[in-house]
Automatic annotation (TrEMBL):
Lineage: Bacteria, Bacillati, Actinomycetota, Actinomycetes, Jiangellales
Region (Disordered): 95-114
Listed InterPro entries: ArsR-like_HTH (IPR011991), HTH_ArsR_DNA-bd_dom (IPR001845), HTH_MetalResp_TranReg (IPR051081), WH-like_DNA-bd_sf (IPR036388), WH_DNA-bd_sf (IPR036390)
Protein name: Winged helix-turn-helix transcriptional regulator
Any GO MF annotation of the entry: DNA binding
Annotated ranges, domain HTH arsR-type: 1-85
Keyword field contains Membrane: no
Record CDD domains: HTH_ARSR (cd00090)
Species of origin: Phytoactinopolyspora halotolerans
Pfam families associated with the record: HTH_5
SUPFAM superfamilies the UniProt entry points to: Winged helix' DNA-binding domain
Length: 114
C-alpha cells in the first residue's frame, strides 16, 4: 500500500525531487547524501508501489514520478479534509480577535540585565 511506502521520509524526499523533474540515480544519491545501493533500494520500493517509473535512454536510467497512485491517496483523504479545514478556520477566527501588538522601535527595548 502506498501509505507504507510513504511513511519513510527518504522516499518522500525522492518523490519531492522527482516532482521537479526526472533524475538519474547518481543525482538522487548525491542530493540525498545516501549510498548508491541505499538510493536504489528506495527507488525499487517506490517503483514496486507504482509511484516511480523508469525510462531507459541508452545506458542511462531516468526515474520519474508517476502521480496516479497519489491521486488515489488524495481521493481517499478528501472526506477527512473537513477536520483540518475547520481547525484552520477556527485558528484564523481566533487570531482575528486578538489585539495587534504595538510595534516598538529598537530604542524602546531595554536590556533586562541592566
Amino acid at each position: 500500500m502506498p501509505f507504507d511506502v510513504l511513511a519513510e521520509p527518504v522516499r518522500r524526499q525522492i518523490l519531492d525531487l522527482l516532482r521537479e523533474r526526472p533524475r538519474m540515480v547518481g543525482e538522487l544519491t548525491e542530493t540525498l547524501g545516501l549510498s548508491q545501493p541505499g538510493t536504489s533500494k528506495h527507488l525499487r520500493v517506490l517503483r514496486d508501489a507504482g509511484l516511480v517509473r523508469v525510462r531507459r535512454d541508452a545506458q542511462r536510467r531516468w526515474y520519474e514520478l508517476n502521480p496516479e497512485p497519489l491521486r488515489h491517496i488524495d481521493e481517499w483523504l478528501t472526506p477527512y479534509r473537513w477536520m483540518w479545514d475547520s481547525r484552520l478556520d477556527a485558528l484564523e477566527r481566533h487570531l482575528d480577535t486578538m489585539p495587534d501588538e504595538p510595534e516598538h522601535s529598537g530604542d524602546d527595548q531595554r536590556d533586562p540585565h541592566e
